[in-house]
Every structure is written in structure tokens, then in C-alpha cells.
From TrEMBL:
The keyword Oxidoreductase applies. Residues 16-326 form the Enoyl reductase (ER) domain. InterPro entries: ADH-like_C (IPR013149), ADH-like_N (IPR013154), ER (IPR020843), GroES-like_sf (IPR011032), NAD(P)-bd_dom_sf (IPR036291), Quinone_OxRdtase_PIG3 (IPR014189). This is NAD(P)H-quinone oxidoreductase. The keyword Isomerase does not apply. GO terms for molecular function: NADPH binding; oxidoreductase activity, acting on NAD(P)H. Keywords: NADP, Oxidoreductase. Coiled coil: none annotated. NCBIfam families: quinone_pig3.
Length: 330
């Protein structure tokens, strides 16, 4: 595969709203030891991209300053020490950054084969959400078959992924969403009950079924004490984002008396080894779910690469359902 010296990319010109995203020409990166270079076909658009754009989520050291944490495409070049992949292989991959570009680098162990029968468009939606959901819901949260699981933001990319994977694991799944239409989508995906948070009290709803054994939350802020009330005794809360704020007053007496666990993580700052371990678990457990039809990414919309600002307006609007992608390759 012939790799050019320069490529089209989308850069963050300054911290701000979606309009600070602009096309630029930058050198094509070269793969180092253990890395692969991907000719990007589609790039996933995620909340962390919007946070980075706004100045609230800086990339880790040595990562590309360009946004984009997942992509699909074909291997364009391999670095030394790479044995699994060869030039031309179709892959989807978790990226440290740089997905909004014609070429992107990642660790070879963070790439996965495209599931059989799945398009590159759909596959671009898998890495960020699957890595996040599996590592937090299962590896950190310890979800087991038969447990009651609540996910907030049930129609987000994370939410639609978590509902389907939790259902496939045999859990009883509950979700919150902001409209009756979105609640219907949650139940269609496998949720036993979806609570419209605009109208109902999700804590009361969960208590009525015995409380949640595990909650996956990206809202934070005022949801934290309500999540505590929603948990069953010995329940676990895993926090993965704070869309409504990271600080809140909480009475820890209830946490102690009811033996609750509050934990959380972010994916991007973790080590390459930790991400490689997550990748292996995702391929081992989630890819078979895809093969048997138990999980499929929910697609919201697609935009050309040069319309990245429109994609960011879309992901920050309340109406989107599922995943948004940028089409990069012609």
C-alpha cells in the first residue's frame, strides 16, 4: 500500500465549540515498534472528543493532538515486532487519538479484526464503547447473570452497547432515557424496564424491583446520591463520566451501612498493556455475541470528515440515538 507523506485531518484550532474544528494537512505518522498505521475508512465520534475540543480532556503524553479515539480501515504499514497484522488487513481499533484523519497510529494489540459480515462503518463504532463497557461493567463492576443492572443514558453509544451486552450475559437490564421514544428503544434492545427520567424517579423504580446490583453511570452530579438510593445492599456503582458535574455532597454513612462500592475509571489514560488486556477480553467475549446476533451497534448518523463540526453538534444535542461516525475514505 502506497502511503503519502501528508494527509487530510481535522484539528482543534482552539478550545471551544464545534466550529473550532477545521481541516488541515499534516504529515502521515510512521509506526514505531509494536504499532500499526491504519488507512482510516470511518472514525467514531464520541463524547471524549467533544470534551477534548472544549479543553476539558487533554490527550495523554505522546498521543496525537488530533481528536478521534476509534476507527476502522485497513492496515497501511506495520512497525517492528508486529506479527498479527499485515498490510491490507481490515481492522477496527482503539486509538490514543488521531482518528479524525486519513491515517492513524495505534498499538497493534489495540486492534481487532472486523467481525464477519459487519461493514467498516459499523465496525468503527465498536472499540471505544465495547472497551469502555466491558472493562467497567464486567472487569471492574463484576456483572453476573441474574443480577439487576441499571445503565443511565440508555440510548447513547455506551447505553445501547451496555444494554445488549448485559442482556447477552444474562443480567436483568434496566435503563434511563429522556423520552418515551428513547425508553421504547431501550426495551427493544433488551431492557426489562426503561425509566423516563424527565417524568419518573429511577431510584424508586429500582427499589421496587429490589435495587440495582450494578449501576453504570456517565451523568454524575446530582445522580450520585440517587444512585446510592437505587442500589441494593452490597451493590456497586461504576462512574465513567460526569456530564452533570464531578462534585456533589454525599452522606457516606449509607455507603458504609449498606456495604456499597463506588468506583470508576477512564479509558484513555490507561497503559497500553491495560488496553491490550481489555482488547483481548472484548475479542474473546463480545465478538462471539456479535457472531450470534446478540449485539450490534446502533447507528445514529454519518458525516463526511470535513463536516466534523456538524457531527459534534449532533453528539451534543439531546436527540441522537446510538453512534455517530465520520466517513474518511472515499
Amino acid at each position: 500500500m502506497n502511503v503519502p507523506d501528508a494527509m487530510l485531518a481535522i484539528e482543534i484550532t482552539q478550545a471551544g465549540g464545534p466550529d473550532v474544528l477545521a481541516p488541515c494537512s499534516v504529515p502521515v505518522p510512521l509506526p514505531g515498534h509494536g504499532q500499526i498505521l491504519i488507512r482510516v475508512a470511518y472514525a467514531g465520534v464520541n463524547r471524549p472528543d467533544a470534551l477534548q475540543r472544549s479543553g476539558a480532556y487533554n490527550p495523554p503524553p505522546n498521543a496525537s493532538p488530533l481528536p478521534g479515539l476509534e476507527a476502522s480501515g485497513h492496515v497501511a504499514a506495520v512497525g517492528s515486532g508486529v506479527t498479527r497484522w499485515k498490510v491490507g488487513d481490515a481492522v477496527c481499533a482503539l486509538l490514543p487519538g488521531g482518528g479524525y484523519a486519513e491515517y492513524a497510529l495505534t498499538a497493534a494489540d489495540h486492534a481487532l479484526p472486523i467481525p464477519e459480515g459487519m461493514s467498516l462503518r459499523e465496525a468503527a463504532c465498536l472499540p471505544e464503547t465495547c472497551f469502555t463497557v466491558w472493562s467497567n461493567m464486567v472487569m471492574r463492576g463484576g456483572l453476573k447473570a441474574g443480577e439487576r443492572f441499571l445503565v443511565h443514558g440508555g440510548t447513547s453509544g455506551i447505553g445501547t452497547t451496555a444494554i445488549q451486552i448485559a442482556k447477552a450475559l444474562g443480567a436483568r437490564v434496566f435503563a434511563t432515557a429522556g423520552s418515551d421514544k428513547k425508553c421504547s428503544i431501550c426495551t427493544e434492545l433488551g431492557a426489562e424496564q426503561a425509566i423516563n427520567y424527565q417524568e419518573g424517579d429511577f431510584a424508586a423504580a429500582m427499589k421496587s424491583v429490589g435495587g440495582a446490583d450494578l449501576i453504570l453511570d456517565m451523568v454524575g452530579g446530582p445522580y450520585l446520591p440517587r444512585n446510592v438510593r437505587s442500589l441494593a445492599d452490597d451493590g456497586r456503582l461504576v462512574q465513567i463520566a460526569f456530564l452533570s458535574g464531578a462534585k456533589v455532597e454525599l452522606n457516606f454513612a449509607e455507603v458504609m451501612m449498606r456495604r456499597l462500592t463506588i468506583t470508576g475509571s477512564t479509558l484513555r489514560p490507561q497503559s497500553d498493556l491495560a488496553k491490550a488486556r481489555i482488547a483481548a477480553k472484548v475479542e474473546q467475549h463480545v465478538w462471539p455475541m456479535i457472531a450470534r446476533g446478540a449485539f450490534k451497534p446502533v447507528m445514529d448518523s454519518e458525516y463526511p470528515l470535513d463536516q466534523a463540526p456538524a457531527a459534534h453538534w449532533r453528539i451534543e444535542a439531546p436527540g441522537h440515538i446510538g453512534k455517530i461516525v465520520l466517513k474518511v475514505a472515499p
